[in-house]
Amino acid sequence: MVGTSGGAPYVAQVLAKTFLAIGDPTAAVEAAKKIVDDVKYHWLLYQQAKTELALDQDAAASTTAKCALDAVEKDPKGNAWLAIYQDLMSQYHEATGSVSEALGSVEGARNSASDDKHERQLATRVEALKARARITQ
User: Fold this and answer.
1) What's the pLDDT band for 134 if we cut at 50, 70, 90?
2) 11-57 pLDDT, tens per residue?
3) Domain positions in the chain
4) Cα→Cα distances 68→16, 33, 117, 120, 134, Å
5) I need a surface site. Which of 37, 66, 83, 96 has the fewest CB within 10 A?
């Protein structure tokens, strides 16, 4: 495991994001896990949660996504990123079949969106989840 050396969390983040982008979620989660938990910052946790979700590691994704969301909420500059973390929680809930919780999380994300383009994307997702919720009722 890598400790507190300056750029290690950033390198792990870049590796995790790159491995995920090229379709290798297993390598992505391994890159993220090389950093000890107490020096992981919210963006690395976010990447790790996305990776765990891609690997269908639902319990791990839930824990990591919640840690990422908690961390970004405590970050004085984190407000600009809050919507993507809430949307990640929504994706987790949707993947586990909790459509109503997914809808609640994505509505929160839409309300937190810091730009119009992202807000429109989230609004589209809200409508899709509402339609899905109607079908399952």
Assistant:
1) confident
2) 887 888 899 889 998 898 888 777 766 556 788 889 889 889 989 99
3) 7-75, 79-137
4) 15, 14, 23, 24, 30
5) 37
What is this structure's pTM? Answer: 0.78
Check: CB of residue 45 under 8 Å from CB of residue 64. Answer: yes
In one-letter notation, the amino acid at residue 84 is I
- Rounded Cα distance between 26 and 111, Å, is 33
Return d(Cα 82, Cα 131) in angstroms, integer. Answer: 25
CA distances from 87 to 1, 9, 53, 119 (A): 29, 23, 13, 11
Plot region of 40 (φ>0 → left; ψ -120 to 50 → alpha; else → beta): beta
Q: For the segment 71-122, what is each residue's pLDDT rounded down to a tens digit?
A: 999 988 888 899 999 999 999 999 999 999 999 999 999 999 989 999 999 9
Other beta carbons within 10 Å of 131: 9
Rg (C-alpha) for the chain, rounded Å, is 15
